[in-house]
Amino acid sequence: AQSVTQPDIHITVSEGASLELRCNYSYGATPYLFWYVQSPGQGLQLLLKYFSGDTLVQGIKGFEAEFKRSQSSFNLRKPSVHWSDAAEYFCAVGARSGAGSYQLTFGKGTKLSVIP
Amino acid sequence: KAGVTQTPRYLIKTRGQQVTLSCSPISGHRSVSWYQQTPGQGLQFLFEYFSETQRNKGNFPGRFSGRQFSNSRSEMNVSTLELGDSALYLCASRKGTSGNQETQYFGPGTRLLVL
Hints:
The complex is a heterodimer.
Chain A: E1 3-5, E2 10-14, E3 19-21, E4 24-26, E5 32-38, E6 45-50, E7 56-58, E8 64-68, E9 73-78, E10 87-96, E11 102-106, E12 110-115
Parallel strand pairs in A: 2-12
Antiparallel strand pairs in A: 1-4, 3-9, 5-6, 5-10, 7-8, 8-9, 10-11, 10-12
Chain B: E1 5-7, E2 10-13, E3 19-24, E4 31-38, E5 42-50, E6 53-57, E7 64-68, E8 74-78, E9 87-94, E10 105-106, E11 110-114
Parallel strand pairs in B: 2-11
Antiparallel strand pairs in B: 1-3, 3-8, 4-5, 4-9, 5-6, 7-8, 9-10, 9-11
């Protein structure tokens, strides 16, 4: 079965500083990988996704992530954090389960706080 | 293009009651998945419907059920509510079954509080 680990429960950064959120996955085949962001009381917004090809993927809001197969990682980065980036970030792996079904398995999330 | 919509946004129920939540997917999307989010367990997969058929079900008791209609709208039902069912219930839709079409887009969720 697939699994996702986000080692950092809570990260605090200063506005303007760089950010890296870690994600490690376990999956037997080539994974589909995603990062979602959730503001308090809201649903999940897709930041970026990896299916195949270029291992460095660009997303919305200036985020990027790099897929490293050898390390089973898909870390999210942003060069300069804005106060509006404060939210909870979820890494997910997508997997097929037969009969055309497909589900996401999520990490526990990393809460990002931004100091002005 | 309108996103995934969920109704109602908030619900308060008492133990033993039942509840029905509704989800309308993005136009043209054929699959609807449901997830439960709680502080303790995080995001957990409930089930997925594709073309009106349940394709997969997560590890939840039979009190949790769902269905999908011909217009791809979906409902989930929880019977005999327990305090532990208090959660944010998220619906996600995807267009198809290959590659980029498998990206799931989420609605705003329904916050259920069981008293």
